[in-house]
Design a protein that fits this description.
Radius of gyration: 31 Å
Shape: globular
Structural class: alpha+beta
Number of strands: 11
Distance between the termini: 62 Å
Helix content: 25-40%
Strand content: 15-25%
Order of helices and strands: EHEEEEEEHEHHEEHHHHHEH
């Protein structure tokens, strides 16, 4: 009996730890609000969240031992900050009053959202919300100013990683004149911040994008709404296309039947018989 198979690329450290448990769930995308696949990794001492990036091309299959897996997609889990997924629920449920986390992360369409409580610590939540305690009850109230400051800090940390990449603009520093180095450094730094802003914008709402843009000192972009709408439309069209695709199962290789070998004697007899009449033809009138 064949079984469905999918091809994942993992770092060794993700699967080699003792008591590692991996599970894939559907959660609401914080930017588009659409269903998106995420991976929870649970060990004996921590829980982590990863987003699943899919690389898919037509006419691609995998050879697994003696079978062919016609599903040629490649899934690559990458770490994602669970605070991004929590933010929409904070904005919706606790802007006016403090609410316990288990009452914030409630979504009938995506019940697995409650699992984010295992990936978040009070320290992390305090980056985007105000903590209120009453006895054993701990509640949180959304703080927009904290959230924007957290996003700005994330952009600047991401900028540092981008600046270290061997991009053409970085390599060109070796060839420009000394008097223009400072100007080039400033241009590269500004470009890295813009790139970081674009990456972070893929995980937040349109309202937060506008506030983050102002906090970073970027000029107001009137096309932000159009860009987000086009991105959402593109994602929707891709999802519709994927849903229409036929689900392929892993099936064993079917080789064509081998041709029967004809001996030399049989070939000679067939050649001799060619052109001769059958014996029944002598009894016909």
């Amino acid at each position: 009996m064949s079984s469905k198979k999918f091809f994942f690329i993992f770092k060794d450290s993700l699967v080699e730890a003792d008591n590692t448990s991996l599970s894939i769930v559907a959660l609401r995308n914080p930017a588009t609000k659409n269903a998106t696949k995420y991976l929870f990794r649970q060990t004996s001492n921590r829980n982590d969240l990863y987003e699943l990036n899919c690389f898919n091309e037509q006419h691609r299959s995998w050879f697994i031992n003696e079978t062919v897996c016609s599903n040629g997609k490649i899934f690559m889990p990458t770490p994602v900050d669970p605070l991004f997924l929590v933010l929409p629920y904070l904005v919706e449920n606790c802007c006016e009053r403090a609410v316990p986390l288990d009452q914030i992360l409630v979504d009938d369409s995506f019940p697995s959202i409650v699992r984010l409580t295992d990936t978040l610590s009070p320290t992390r939540l305090s980056l985007v919300a105000d903590k209120k305690s009453a006895g054993k009850i701990v509640a949180y109230k959304y703080n927009e100013q904290k959230t924007v400051e957290w996003l700005v800090a994330k952009c600047h940390r991401l900028k540092g990683s981008i600046s270290k990449q061997e991009t053409p603009s970085v390599r060109s520093l070796n060839y420009i004149k000394e008097e223009k180095e400072n100007e080039k450094d400033e241009a590269d730094d500004h470009g890295a911040v813009q790139t970081a802003f674009g990456i972070v914008s893929d995980y937040i709402s349109l309202e937060l994008i506008k506030k983050l843009s102002v906090a970073l000192g970027f000029p107001e972009d009137e096309n932000i709404s159009k860009k987000r709408k086009s991105a959402v439309d593109l994602e929707s069209s891709v999802m519709k296309k994927l849903k229409k695709e036929e689900l392929h199962e892993t099936t064993p290789i079917k080789l064509p039947a081998a041709e029967k070998k004809i001996s030399a004697k049989a070939k000679a007899m067939a050649k001799a018989a060619s052109g001769s009449k059958s014996i029944s033809s002598f009894f016909k009138k």
